[in-house]
Amino acid sequence: MAVIVFGSINIDLVATATRLPVAGETLLGRDFFKVPGGKGANQAVAVSRLGVTTYMVGRVGAHSFGAELINSLQAAGVRTENVSIEAVANSGVAIIIVDERGENQIVVIPGANALIDEEDVARLREILPRGKALLLQFEIPLAAVISAAQTAHSAGVPVIVDPAPAQDSSRLDELYPLIDIITPNEIEASQLVGFGVSNQDSAAEAGRELLRRGVKCAIIKLGAKGVYCANAQEEFFTPAFPVPTVDTTAAGDAFNGGLATAIAEGLSLREAVVWGAAAGALAATKPGAQPSLPDRFTFDSFLQAQGVNRS
Questions:
Q1: Which of 168, 247, 253, 300 is catalytic?
Q2: 310 within a domain of the structure (yes/no)
């Protein structure tokens, strides 16, 4: 039983301030710290900390943080033999600003992530027989995402796509039929479907549109307002877990980690969505990306405290 993550590996440079700046404005910040991140690596760490064997497929640079990023993945228990070191590029970097409410602005410089191609897909193909799910994101070239999804689809491995950062929806027609579960947040869902998504009703409309495009299951994350889920058999809404929010940077990645862990462990879709919501809520209570991702003891304790019965 394993989950495979094919995607980005970054170093996060994080500044905190009382609020987010507007265009052209200079603010005095409160703090600065550097932590491993990248949506792919975050999701790999999220799954591994929840106790499931996790393989990471991606690239880092030979200089500027590469060894640090690989060591961090390994320290979290992630298998990194399929992470290649790229001599001609720097590692990916994310520049993040977080305000006192936990909201953020992020700029990502892909670096080595932009070089992911068919060589990486070939490495993925070798380990797919071990996978219960494949996690994908959009911080790497879309052509590589589509190829990885095609490879997993052909192998019968469920494909879970976090469509972040959002892409031009017209480029995704080839990808939609390969997706078993797509997990956009409000902003990403709005960009995908072409209308505003801000509440349960609009999330339901967006979910149905994504199903029409060929996705098998649409899960739309509405932050503190909860999670909407739909497939051909059912539609349901899961409330968010109320927690004090410190930093939402990796909450979406934690959600996908909890979701994939539940799927790997054979839980139902409804249970998997609850697990995703719980992992995302816990991640929002701590600063930073990977440092905020819960371990299994913390996760199980949280579920128990919330009165969630585990299968």
A1: 253
A2: no
